[in-house]
Predict the structure.
Amino acid sequence: MVESSGEALISVRLRVNGSDHEIRVRPRESLAEALRAKLKLTGTHLSCQIGVCGACSVLLDGDLVRGCLILAAQASGRDVQTVEGLSQDDALSEVQSAMHEQHAVQCGFCTPGFVVLLHWLRAHRDEMDARELGEALSSNLCRCTGYAGLVRAAEALLDRRVDLGRTDEGDHLEPARGGIA
Amino acid sequence: MKVRVGEPMLGLEDAAFLKGRGTYLDDLPDDGDLHLAFVRSAAAHATIRAIDTTAADVIPGVIKSFTFQNLNARPITSYHTEPSWQPSVFPALADGRVRFVGQPIAAVLAVDPFIAEDAADHVQVDYEALPSIVDMSAALSDGAQPLHPGWSGNCYAKLRVQHGNPASALEQAPRRLRLRLRTNRQLGMTMEPRGVRAVGRDGTLTVHTSSQVPQMVRAGLARCLGLDPVRLRVATLDVGGGYGVKQQLFPEEIVAAVAALELERPVRWVEDSREHLLASVHAREQEHEIEVGFDDEGKVQVIKARIYTDAGAYSMYPSSAALDAEIAASSLPGPYEIANLEIEAFAVATNKCPVGPYRGVGRPMACLSIERVMDAIADQLGLDRLVVRRRNLIPSTAFPYTSPTGALYDSGRYAETVDLLRDAHAEFLVRRDARRSLGSCVGVGIAVSIEQASFVTAHRFVSRGVPLPFPKEQVRVTVERTGNVVALLPTHSHGQGHHSMVAQVLSDELGIDVEDVQVFFGDTAVTPNGLGTFNSRSVVVSAGGALVAARQIRQQGASVAAEFFGVPVERVAWEPGGYSITDSPGDRVTLGGLAEWLSGPESASRSGGQLSALWEYGDPDEVGTTSNAAHLAMVEVDPGTGATRVLDYVVVEDCGRVINPLSVDSQIQGGVAQGIGGALLEELVYDDSGQLRTATLADYLLPTATEVPPVTILHRETLSPFSANGSKGMAEGGAIAPGAVIVSAIEDALRPQARIFLTELPVTPQRLINALNAAQP
């Protein structure tokens, strides 16, 4: 099938949240666009679409990726987990409970991206020191909450201190480095 | 779960968002939708000689393209009562002239968004460049061509306010100082893009839009379409942040509505982040020229100010191009008692994106100015910065207090608010000195701020000519037969948690479970009489209104219960959730039970058949509430790179009755984060030709988790005599003071090596290096 703009569609096989799908996408269609439009998984949100904000975060073979920077075609044959796959019908997951209990949600638009990010952080917490955890947490943008609840949620969930690079706290005593992190 | 007012309560809204089950505009199912893409001006200022859509129209999948010639809509009108007001005419698609980069020129409608965007690239626009005016001094210079036809000069409005005798006060003041301050352009930058989906059928229209003010969008859109508002429903879904950006009627909404009416198919548009940065609304860009006279004790006797706002190319609806200037002018004296004042404020037209409200609206710039004045006085007199502020604060005995700008502040104990900061301030100084002894450049700053809120009413808009179809806003609370309580709100929630807030208020007043409260807002078919949310108004309007309505329901219920029990009303006693008979506690009926009984045959003639109460808001003399705060920050500066990091932050605030401390704290934390962005990172930069150089989020820098410390928040509660619940709007306050407090802290950090005085936000590394290079060692 050729779409009306002359673009040939590509057939892509994805395993998404444990189910196998075959979808037809444009070569330039991002994974996030395809998840939303073709699989109706609208929990993956699109905001900046240039890889800065992280609202479209998904897990691809367990790796944390920006759904807007990966083409659906690139994800062919791979395993995708979205916020829907990290959620249960009734109760909140551990990650979600931590975010709820720490009042880390306001408008909700960045929220699924942070749910995915925190799932990934929990899986990798032992590979990172406190400073790296802080840097990882800074990879997604939230415009509402000012991050305090998200940081508390991360610390509660990981049972680890998250070092955000403020030099007067804890053991991190080197002066501020150049540039704004 | 029953929750009392004042207790921390977790958000009832959270679960859906956490599971990815929110429904935002672009989550609406595609029901054969047509998708719009806009052709936007590449020129800051030009005449359009021709638009050729032929190459787009022939692309398979393109349904139709629009230019001003075939777009059946009136331009966006803005309204103001200021005598100097010069309105702009803002057509949804440019009618022969463009005035900012990003202005919509044409729109292409196609069967999917990819085709629409591709086709938009094939629209040819023939520009004839005109000289562009990208800064205010050029716009105001002698001989500058007016940007709008029929205008004299380049000001949308020139405002003036005077009190006392500023000229002689300045002449007689023992000491004087002058400052010139600048805040650069910034914007709200919501995480959810703007978007609209319009469905037309038989001349009626349903428009879903990502907005804070659906009712006002309806009124403005109906006017632009020439449509009776009765044929137009505007509704929101979940809205992913507003901060003032989504408080306008946008050109894209008009085009989508016209297309949906014409084609009778669903029409959808969702912006990308470049469009948000180029062509939503900007804010903040102001220059202030300040002159003050003060005495040897540091008491300010007089302030004169000229406030210039770069208001961009068009005035928006329903806010106006004058808004930032007006609010900066009215709030300039802030928390300080100043006897003599003269302010002139100018809203200047330039070839840049139009401006609109952004959290704080004028107040962050006013706060920067008056707090810089306090710091400069302290420096000149060799006094402590806290002491100088303390000497100028409005005394607690002066409330209700009328500011020399005419603003009426309801209540407050400003000195006590500041005093609550003293311990934290002393601790910060100890930590600062400890860090300094290790060689770090650490400094501490303070600022005091107020937030006048909740004073904007329907009357205010109607008196300006805004075609709102209602004179007052309404809150309706109804007890259903099931025992559920339904609240209809005139405000809009897009992250503020109004469902939780009102459920908590009703749980407290009616003794019901928060889970039994249903809240509706944001749909003109259900809640037509409302203004939406801005001006930190919802705690006064919606929470206050729900409280009054609940009290009325309790009164109604007592009479009904007397009939139900067959006893005089004097023997009916309220107990949480229902009523009993005095001295006979076994006889009990719940509110839901009464509602059920009321709907039955025994009571058909009584009490109008239901427990329901309506509260209206919007007396012409409504003045709202004024909360106050004191902010304290500790920063570390790298003098080699100019980078600043905020190490710690404390806010003491007084917003009257706190309904949910978690929500109040979360609003403060979020506001401070935006304030830190505005103080250090966020800047929309135009080049000399009017091109926006910061049109991606890689260039326009938002704060991340590593730039924002967890804020320690302390509360005072001075109840407002003006609001029904004693609460005062507070949600913008967090964003007002950070600029002032952070520049003060940066100067303190550098004090051991250089004396600088910062006058421009944001303090980017380059600006700080420049200031250091210019400083005397």
Q: What stands out?
A: Chain B has a mean pLDDT of 96. The longest strand of chain B covers residues 625-638.
